[in-house]
Structures are given as structure tokens and as C-alpha cells.
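Private note to self, pasted from the team thread so I don't lose it. C-alpha cells:
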């Protein structure tokens, strides 16, 4: 690593894309992952669908309990 860098020709925001959506990885604990994998396998659907459905249901429950 150099002691100093020259940014005089740099362009601010060169790689910025407005309204970009990032899909960040989510890491589940092993027991939760096994639970979700089992359901996904039984229903023959993607794990992400199961996780999203579980979260949506928990949001509904939380809204009712407010």
C-alpha cells in the first residue's frame, strides 16, 4: 500500500447508479436453515420463497399485536 494516492483525476459518483437495488446475502443459523430447507424440499420451491413467506406472516402477526 502506498503512503499517498493521487485522486486529482478522480470523478465523484462514477459508479453510482440511482435506484440500484442490491440483493444482500442472508445467513441463517443452521437449525433455521435446516427447517427452511425441509419445507422447501417438501414443496419443491426455492428457499427464498419460504423465508419471504415466513417473514410476511410474522409481519402480519406483529401488526395485529400492536
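Design output:
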Amino acid at each position: 500500500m502506498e503512503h499517498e494516492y493521487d485522486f486529482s483525476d478522480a470523478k465523484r459518483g462514477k459508479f453510482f447508479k440511482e435506484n440500484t437495488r442490491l440483493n444482500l446475502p442472508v445467513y441463517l443459523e443452521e437449525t433455521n436453515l435446516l427447517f427452511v430447507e425441509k419445507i422447501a424440499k417438501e414443496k419443491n420451491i426455492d428457499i427464498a420463497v419460504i423465508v419471504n413467506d415466513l417473514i410476511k406472516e410474522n409481519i402480519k402477526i406483529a401488526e395485529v399485536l400492536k
